[in-house]
From TrEMBL:
It holds the Pfam family Acetyltransf_7. Coiled coil: none annotated. Residues 26-165 form the N-acetyltransferase domain. GO terms for molecular function: acyltransferase activity, transferring groups other than amino-acyl groups. This is N-acetyltransferase domain-containing protein. Gene3D superfamilies: 3.40.630.30.
Length: 165
């Protein structure tokens, strides 16, 4: 047995009545101002420096943010014209269904419109997009050249993919 900082008595893992602490759910919500710093940080770590999605605060219906407690662990953004600008899941949270749920939400936001996006040629998310029915329409050499910093090892080539409705 041990005592936590707020003086609650807890059983040790070795005791027969021990139960793991309750886990917190993953919550999904629209993008709000209080998410901005964490979202920009996540996107800059996943893609390239200097990303700022503050303009997406004008269109919260075209966004989704995944939260674990108060931590942003994923986000996705789309334009009103049904172009997905960003979708990212924090390292360590991959393959937990977060990306799939966010993509589903964004696709459902624009029923009746084709949904499009660019994806790096070596991005494993391409498998997820294909499961949703996205089809590659174009291969673009050096698409990300203007975004990636000099000396970046990131793939500069992209596929333009479309989900036809």
């Amino acid at each position: 047995m041990f005592i936590t900082r707020n003086c609650q008595i807890r059983l040790s893992v070795n005791e027969p009545d021990w139960l793991p602490p309750p886990s917190s759910p993953i919550d999904f919500c629209y993008f709000q101002k209080e998410h901005l710093n964490q979202v920009n940080d996540l996107l800059q770590r996943c893609f390239w420096p200097s990303i700022d999605v503050s303009e997406n605060l004008l269109f919260p219906d075209f966004s989704v943010v995944a939260m674990y407690r108060r931590l942003v662990i994923g986000c996705g953004f789309m334009t009103p014209e049904a172009y997905i600008t960003y979708i990212a899941v924090a390292p360590g949270w991959e393959k937990s269904g977060i990306g799939q749920f966010m993509l589903y939400h964004l696709v459902q936001t624009n029923i009746g419109k084709d949904v499009t996006l660019h994806v790096s040629a070596n991005n494993p998310a391409m498998i997820l997009y294909q499961k949703f029915g996205f089809k590659p329409e174009e291969f673009i050499v050096n698409f990300y050249d203007k975004y990636l910093p000099d000396g970046s090892l990131g793939c500069k080539n992209a596929f333009f993919v479309r989900l036809r409705r």
